[in-house]
Amino acid sequence: MERPASAGAVDRALAHCAATVRYTCAQLLRVRRLGVEGGPYPGAAALLAATARTLREAGAGLRASGPVPVTGPIEAEIAAFDATRAAGPDGRTEPVGTAAARLGLGAVSLDAAEGSRFLVLAVRVSRRAPLPPDDTPADQRPGPFWYAHAPAAALWWRRFRANLTPRSVYFQNALRIAAALGAARLVAGALDLSHGFWVLLATLTLMRTSAVDTRMTLRPALTGTACGAAATAALLIVVGERPAFYAAALPPVMLIAFTVGPMLGLAWAQGTFTVVVALVFTQLAPVGWRLAEARLVNVATGAAIGILAGLCAWPRGGGQELRRRTAELLTDSALALRETVAVVTGTGPAHGALRRARLTTLLTEASYAQYRSERHDAAGEGPNWQAALLAGQHTVRGAEPLLARMPAGTAAIGPAAAASLVRDADRVAAAFDLRASALLARVPLDGHPDRSATGTAGTGAAGARAAVSEGTAAEGAGTTGPAEQRLAEARDSLLDEHTSAARMPADVASLHTVDVVVWLGGLLDDLARVTAPAPRTAEAGSG
Fold this sequence. Notes:
Helix content is about 70%, strand content about 0%. The chain is mainly α. The longest helix is centred in the first third of the chain and has 31 residues. The protein starts with 8 loop residues before the first helix and ends with a helix.
């Protein structure tokens, strides 16, 4: 699995591109569903066509030879669409469900267009092109592209400082390797092993991020080393002390060892490297066949130390840490969406929850990347980890354009509407919190909740919203079916409830209300996917 992992601005921007493409793709899939349910929305087709053009231009801009994309065209289309929406309804009388789908289509189309604009900005950063002025509100800065013009040393220091915590898998791996190398040095000195540095080298090269993976390397490593030692012993016995022969054989053998060996697997890599080491030592001093014996003993010692270190320090590798980090990400996402709704409705100030969610997202992405590189039992993999990661990413990606587009206190008409929107955000956040608690408790995400939480659920929209706060089945609560279906019903109910305010009159505040509710509904869609196991074939190819 290859992905941009450097702390530099270019790799950070490429990682932003990947996350933004996934977010925009999710919005476009929702456009298809809402378009079927509610029919066309004025101006949405033109906006989506502009979004498609912008995505193509951004894709071409990712290539070094392609033109650098600009945000001007998509920003003009977004402004024209906002003007069309603010012009009011077309005068048709239609059911609430149809009107909700049409308004939702407009809001999701706008989200997709904002995603394509964000993608263009990320591509410009990756191409080191200038950016327009940051439109992030002052109380939410630094914005998402804070790193665009930061010095490389400052970015690396920030990456180091962010991972200087036991929550980071990089920090855990560093401690594990340091302890293993320290133990290898002590053992090599205590046993007075000849060429003891081979013990450290074997420990370093054979250790993996989990005890299972380290153990799986033992057999091919020892097999390859044994075969290489046998070949080395035979070579030394047959050829004898002829330094000229060894000097001539060293370059081609070294080329094969460092190119073909790793491609053929660990056994070949260890075997060919053993031969290379022997050829090097024959240039320094006369050696005998016991050099091969020392190599085999040292590799076996280093491998054993690596296995013991892996068993003593985070033996499960990224799996256990991913569970904790994902739960923390869902919890921080809940705080971030509460904060976002509070800011845009004017019911509360920003207190840094969105920035914390960004940092937690980075730690979770690192844990997920390590998890995907490890071996795991398919029966015990847990929920769809990538869906949970996307739920957190979409919380941050969706909140950023909302805060940039909506001045504080403009997302609701009056205190009553603001309070209703805050309650909706609390219910969605409660679903995130419940998923986080279920992950930490290792209980099925579609199991039965605490009975004490089921007494307030009713029927209709209220019952659907209560299902969001419970997140799972509630006997007698008026909701049935799997958790995904109940979350979908809750999402539809949230939008239906706020539709009437946006139909007449269609002022800016009521449309902002719909934008916020559609964002919350999209988060419920993301959260519903967390309950299902990840498809084996599909996830294996995802990044």
